[in-house]
Amino acid sequence: MITNIDKLLENVLKNIIFMNKPLKDKYLGIFVYSIFWILFWLSINTMPFEIYLFGESFIKSINSLRLLIPLILSIFLIIFSLYKLSFAKVLFYFKEYNSTYLFLFLFSTQFVSIIFNDYRNFNLDNIYLVILSYGTIFLFLTVNSDREKKLKYFLKINIFFLCLVCLVILSPKVDDIISNKLNFYFIFAELDGNILKQVNPRITGLSRSFAILSLFMLAFYFNNKNQYYKLLILIIFLIFNFFIITMESRGTILCFFLSTIFIILFLNSSEINVKIILIVTLIISNLTFLKISSKEIINIKDNNANFRLFNTNSSGRVEIWKHIVKNNDYKKFLGLGSQGDRYFLKNYKNKDIFGNNSSNAFLYTLLSGGYLGLIFLLMIYFNLLRKIFYGIKQTYHDPYYTFSVSVILFFLIRSLFENSFGLFSIDYLLIFSSILYIDSFHSKKNN
What we know:
globular, about 0% strand, single chain, 20 helices
């Protein structure tokens, strides 16, 4: 009886997860994987304590399920994948998708550091981000067919959520934005709740969303032959440029414009004169946007509404980096576990002013995963730089490929002054799915 149940369960899982048997609807597999990816997106901005608030109210129950379901899914994917993956398949995936394993090793150093740590408890609060990261990795390892097609839907889901975030966050604030003459930074300085009573993303998160959407549009601009569509895309692209400038997030602006120029120069087959015209248009339009956005031009009367784009301070990052470098215990091989930087900076005297995270992927990894984690992060960087240079050599007329390469460059730069993809986050979901798409694209081309 037990054997029959076990075989029945195995057959069901094969159909749903591994797709080993033909399905009546060829899109069912894409639908199932897309739902799984959506669940990981929904877990963003949740905390473990919310799980215990289930039943107190409708909103609290929703927030509880947003984390609980992805955690259960992650544990299931981990157990089932380890049970089913053969040694031969592991070797194949490591050869074709070694980026996936490098991320697995990176997060494992944070997991192991928690286990052998004398300062922090091994509990859900300290490991839930690692579990969610594992879930995304093992989700991909269960994909046996149509990898490129499924991952293309992952990228579409990414874009959908970024659009949704921008729309939901900006809609209630339209009157404030107009009355304050587009001073986004001042308007979003207050961390008030909006979506499901969760704290709104900071202005850096909002500007990053607009930047990634702009890169997506630019990728389609160069891979579209319809001149009317190209003109429409270019107009929307320039409008988004204006929003990015007015949001005054210096890190986003740096990442965005370097990635944009990279796409224009290297990731398309346009004539050189077209590239020059686009770069000149980009420079002139954004210099104009800077003038429009400056305090001298819009003459904002509120003393708190300062134009901060050209401030010389580093928002406290340099002070935090100095504190970490000076006070870290370099004799310890392992780190402090996931989000070890927050634990390390808990007694930092300026944390209320500058924040409580390391704002650098290398320092975050050193504090969270130790020397071994730092080695895997360096291997990831080397691997991603190879993908970028390969993208320069081989110009593919695929907007999703172009977009994915630009996303990798964007977050490689961003990781120098943010924790970024060093832990489970929006940055991680965006760059990891882009990496997987590029790997699957190359694998399909080589077969």
